[in-house]
Amino acid sequence: MKMTCGPKTSMWISFTFLCTMLCTWSVAHSWSYFYSNSSMTWQKARTWCRTHYTDMVAIQNQEEIEHLNEWLPKRTRYYWIGIRKINNVWTWVGTNKALTEEAANWAQGEPNNGKEGKNPGLNEDCVEMYIKRDQQAGKWNDERCGKLKTALCYTAACKNDSCQYGDCVETINSHKCVCHEGFYGEKCEHVVKCREDEVTVPDKGRVNCTHKYGEFVFDTSCQYSCEEGYQLSMPGPLTCTASGEWSEQPPTCELVQCQKMSRPSRGSMQCSGPLGPSSYNSTCVFTCDEGYALTGSSSSTLRCEESGNWSSSQPLCSAVQCPDLKELENGAITCGDNEDSRFSYGNTCTFSCAQGYQLVGPSRVTCTSAAEWSERMPRCEAITCKGPEGDVHLITECNQPMTDLRPDSTCSFSCEAGFELQGAESIQCSENGEWSTTIPTCKAMSCSAPEVPANVQMSCSPSSPSDLTLHPVGMVCTFSCEDGHELQGAPSMKCAHSGHWTSTPPTCTAVRCPLLEAPENGQINCSNDGQVYNTQCSFTCDGGYSVYGHSLLICDRTGSWTGEKPTCQAPTSQTTAVVSGLATGGTLLSGLSVAMWILKRMRQKANKFELNSNSEIEPPPQYYKNSIDSLI
């Protein structure tokens, strides 16, 4: 393996190339190229370059390509260069930077990487360069890394201390320093300086400067701050730039001002502070109108903080919300068109029921400021008619159960025996839950007051007022007659369910006694020609005859005479003797004594007659009087 340097064996070239890796060699003073005398694979070629030199040549410009094509010997036309495909990207070795289009120098049709029929199926991930070739000299071709070709290496001229604050750039037979921003000089050893007096301390503030390369030179940073309640007019620091000027004018400390807030709709705001409204440490208190509550903030009192921000976001006044109303079973709720405010303060919801149902409770509710509904939630109940309740004698039959008499239900009525219906025979339940007409009643059937003859006595049970003109069903009336009269007809009658008496009232006729005729040799005189009850018949005899028996008979209540019919008899001999004696011996008995004696005798004779056992009539007082008179 052979190395060549100098005019014959090597050639010092220069070109503008940014070295990305600084190496330390004590002999080289410029960029130098080397090549191997033997061929080897791409990986071995790179190892050989890195062992003996800096690395494999990574060509990055056309000038370098032209130089190598002229300098390298023609004995071989193919040299490995430091470009390889990594992760499907052509990359410079040592830097892992992608090959740029400007630096690429591919031969015509290259790279093909095994395409278009050339080495199909093989990866051609390494790059060779054509040297002093008749066609496309200096061009590149992708090739298999396992092929044997000449290695092309380089050494760098720049050292670690070549440039203090800059980058060392290889040049033809030398190098130069490209200074970093803010530095100058041959080795970039000088730094740009800014004016110290331009860094002023603001009122209500302070400044602190940090020096990296020296006091108030390039990259010096001056950080400003303010006292509590004040803020910088410019937030960033002052920096000394590469031009020797400060990046900004010194800031000022200004009183912290928070963004001015406005009074919320449906509410009020009151602000105050030691340094003015909306300034540091000022406060704003928010309140809401009735029916509205603060939202959007954690507190009703906001304070302007040092940061220039309020302690919380500005509150809003939102209408209080009442609890959501549940769906109305068998009904509907209407609360307005805005879904977001259906249940908010002041909003009214109305209720309605489906057909066949009626609302029980309020028809509307309003959300109050206390976040409560003004009324309780109503309910929808099925429309039903109340079960018809009649008197105890009313018989009711409905086509639906009594507990579920919906509209169009019907009920028919009848009465128990002895009662008649007063009103409609049937009723119907209407849509509003009312019956089509009033519920009928049952009126007890009655019989008209019977026409009772004047001499007939009537007694009814149960008893009733004397002025009763109608007698209820079941009433029984019994009849009786006055003494000496007897019923002609049924003794009682009853008011039947038909409203008619079972019979007609009877009559009372006077009791008749057997017809009496005048006795032989006598006369009869009666108080009544019909010889009915209480008739008195007196008897008298012709001259020379005397009444033998009761001279007065009365017709009693049983239709019997109070005694037997008397007779007229001639006087007996005893009686004549007595009369004669009286005539001759008038001095012995006075007229009074005779009369008493005669009376006694008549009484004795009267006792011979027996009164009828059924007679309840005592002989009238004149009975004896008449007898005496007849005797006299």
Largest sheet: 7 strands, mixed
**Class of the largest domain in CATH?**
Alpha Beta
Would you report the number of β strands? 44
Query: How widely separated are the two ends?
Result: 221 Å
**What is the fourth-level CATH superfamily of the largest domain?**
Mannose-Binding Protein A, subunit A
Mean pLDDT: 81
- Derived from helix and strand composition plus strand pairing, the structural class reads mainly beta
Radius of gyration: 79 Å
Structure write-up:
The chain starts with 5 loop residues before the first helix and ends with a helix. The relative contact order is 0.05. The radius of gyration is 79 Å and the shape is rod-shaped. It is mainly beta. The protein folds into seven domains: 6-157, Roll (Mannose-Binding Protein A, Chain A), CATH 3.10.100; 192-255, Complement Module, domain 1, CATH 2.10.70.10; 267-319, Complement Module, domain 1; 331-382, Complement Module, domain 1 (Ribbon), CATH 2.10.70.10; 394-444, Complement Module, domain 1; 446-510, Complement Module, domain 1 (Ribbon); 522-631, Ribbon (Complement Module, domain 1). Helices cover 10% and strands 31% of the residues. Strands 2, 3, 4, 5, 6, 7 and 8 form a seven-stranded mixed beta sheet that branches. It contains six helices and 44 strands.
Provide a quick synopsis of the model.
By secondary structure, the protein is mainly β.
Keywords:
632 residues; mainly beta; Mannose-Binding Protein A, Chain A; Complement Module, domain 1; 7 domains; 7-stranded mixed sheet; 3-stranded antiparallel sheet; 10% helix; 31% strand; rod-shaped
